[in-house]
Design a protein that fits this description.
It contains two helices and three strands; from the N terminus they run αβββα. It is α+β, with helices and mostly antiparallel strands. A hairpin with a 7-residue loop joins strand 2 and strand 3 (about 45-50). It is globular and about 30 Å long. The two termini are about 15 Å apart.
């Protein structure tokens, strides 16, 4: 897996999506501003309430990274 250094305190939603896509996740379904990302061999979908340039709350970011199996920096 590619290693990207991300400072979780100041991650924007678009950066979180880019990080997921770099780790092999792709958009599976979308309903309004809620997007679900998945990848082959991964048992669960990762839910991202997408808000573009806004910053992701820290707990939300940690939860998405944990669900995706991505190590936090």
């Amino acid at each position: 897996m590619p290693s990207l250094e991300v400072e979780v305190d100041q991650v924007k939603f678009s950066e979180l999506v880019r990080l997921l896509e770099t780790h092999g996740f792709s958009l599976v379904k979308e309903k309004g501003s809620i997007r679900y990302y998945g990848k082959a061999g991964w048992p669960r979908l990762i839910r991202v309430d997408y808000h573009g340039a806004k910053e992701v709350p820290t707990g939300t970011c940690y939860a998405a990274l944990k669900a995706a199996g991505i190590q936090k920096p």
